[in-house]
Amino acid sequence: MSFVGNKVFIAVSLHVDLFEPPVFGSMLDYNSIYENYKYLKLATGIVQDLELVKS
Asked: Which of 5, 9, 30, 43 is the most exposed place for a label (fewest CB within 10 A)?
């Protein structure tokens, strides 16, 4: 975590390639969609928990 000016930067270490779609699988598979959803929920949850959203 670092602060630059009025911004905060957070790095989360994962052992998953989030930006690489499955080569031999379908992106329409429910489990693939749910896995991506969990990581998006993690990112938005961090912002909400730290109350970084301006109203």
From this structure: 5
Q: Tell me how far apart the alpha carbons of residues 12 and 42 are, in angstroms, rounded to a whole number.
A: 10
SS3 state at 53:
coil
Instruction: Provide the 3-class DSSP secondary structure of residue 35.
Output: helix
Whether the Cβ atoms of residue 48 and residue 40 lie closer than 8 Å to each other:
no
CA distance 14 to 10: 13
d(CA 10, CA 12): 7
Which two tokens mark 53?
Answer: 């959203």
pLDDT per position as a tens digit, 2-25 = 889 988 888 888 888 877 777 777
